[in-house]
Amino acid sequence: MSSLNRIPVVSVPGDGIGPAIMTAVQRVLSQAQLPIEWHHHALGLQASPAEIEATLTAFQTHRVMLKGPTETPVATKGQKSFNVTCRKGHGLYINLRRSVSLHPIIPSSFPDQDVTVVRENEEGLYAAVEHRHTPDGVQAMSLKTISGMYRIIRAAFEYAVMMGKSRVCCFHKGNILKMTEGTFLAVFQQVAVDYPSIQSTAQIIDDGMAKVATAPHLYDVVVTENLFGDILSDITTQLAGSLGMGGSANIGARSAMFEAIHGTAPDLVPGGALNPGPLDMANPSGLLQAALLMALHIEPAWLPIVNLIQTAWAWTLEDGIHTADIARGGKNPTTTRVVGTLAFTDAMVDRLERLMSGESHALTHLSHLLLTVPPAISSDTWHRQRPYCPVSLPRRVVGLDVTIEWTGISSLQLVLERRGWSVDLSAFSLAQSVMEMAAWWHQKDASVTTAPPLPVPVLAFLYDQHRTCLLEMVAHVWHLLGLATPPGYVPVTLSSRGQLLVPTVLDPDLSDQLVVRFHLLDEGAASPEWGPLLSALAHAGFPVLGMQVLHVLDTVGAGFTDSYGDATPSSSHRFF
Length: 576
Ligand code: NAD
What we know:
This protein has helices spanning 18-31, 49-62, 82-89, 146-162, 180-192, 205-214, 226-240, 285-298, 303-318, 324-327, 341-356, 379-382, 409-418, 430-442, 455-466, 470-484, 522-525, 531-540; strands at residues 7-12, 36-40, 64-67, 94-100, 114-120, 124-132, 138-143, 167-172, 199-204, 221-224, 247-251, 256-260, 321-323, 337-339, 396-406, 489-495, 512-520, 544-552. It is an alpha/beta fold. Helix 1 runs parallel beside helix 11. The longest helix has 17 residues, at 146-162. The structure holds nicotinamide-adenine-dinucleotide.
């Protein structure tokens, strides 16, 4: 076939085992005579910035990519993940990861497992927006949108309909993360109404993960956010046999990228990722499954040839020709021959040749792997969205989070010095402290509105020596803060590491940074100017690191947007 009639596809071998499995898969696809024109590009550890740029441009042009795994250094420094860059840069918001049991060829306790994880692919913690606030405090932001939630959840239901599945389950953490995860659940419940024939359920992620690990056959489609989906799909793939078996599709309205679920498998790469040398240990099945999804995405009419490839693959497995990961060190009773990547590919190609020359072959155990419905993603059905208009919602400013640097005793000393109270906190003896403590307790109620030179050092001393009474100390600073707070604001929480510190017990090791949350009172609400509050804080000696204005979008019952408040949208609130 001339190149004019071939479909251009960007191919990226990647790192580690990537080049070996990519060669294997392209050999099989070429044997099947699929009219694909490969555009070979580079991504990964060894790719130069210019090569990476060229790859992303080629993807922009051709819109389809088959990608091997790429290594992302785990460190406080290093480049961003290429995967995340591709997914976000090209709007590939759906990540589909299906795992089907290959029992009895790969023995499984769950022979009926056929679960697809529909993972949101662009938002959440994978935005990788991170900051270092202080020497001790780092922060990652989980950025999510209702429109993003809406479209991934709709995609999950559409997938279920297309594949004839009857159950869609939402995994969420709405009990803890009321806004981000609670909203995900609320959107799920709203979208589910449009699919009355599908049984929709929801589970808290930890419970759901445990249930999937012990009863994956009870799930058809699970939709969840980015990080949860990443973890969950590794579990479901491993349950089905091996991480080396699973393919994955990253789909957007315009482009799609296909890859194996697994990574670069450094333990199978003797020379390391930068110098892999001859490689022959990896199972190419995961990338092959991804390539078949890709073929159907390009052209659903390729289903017969895709199923020939699938038959050749399953036939090889049924014949007991297995790579080491599924031979399981001699523990898989169906293995007849343990082979490397090359011999496994030879065996597939041999069977494919026979099938293409007219020989028929009926699969004994794995016929359920044949694709009956092309899971192709036509942009019309998958990316259909109802408009979402945030501007139509009332918006009301309710408060402010102020992050203050707090290094324990030294911060306290600084605050006091800035207030003009010259005390050397380290100079107090225990005996003196105990006496002063007693004196302070005696006059405690009266000390709220007056400058308190005595109790603070006592508390500081005890904190420093015993680290037991930080609550008292923070409560005391709270009073200092109260003195500095202009009318119209009230501090409602003081927290660090997400803890609500007042009025409950807190971590005695607290240090480094505090978030003081100010609620806006009626008098402040008339004119929510933050300047006076911030200058009052600065004047009191608190080093302000940052601030975030809090507002509610729905005045219909969501209440104060707070990590401990009822921030889950109420049933009377509609997003769409
Ligand atoms: P991994 O998936 O590479 O390996 C986990 C385990 O699965 C290893 O024991 C490995 O030997 C086995 N395994 C994986 N693929 C296999 C295959 N085809 N055949 C046989 N066994 C296979 O996960 P990891 O070790 O956590 O990650 C290594 C690197 O890969 C990291 O740099 C990570 O960032 C990267 N990674 C990339 C992608 C991607 O590009 N899509 C996905 C996951 C991880």
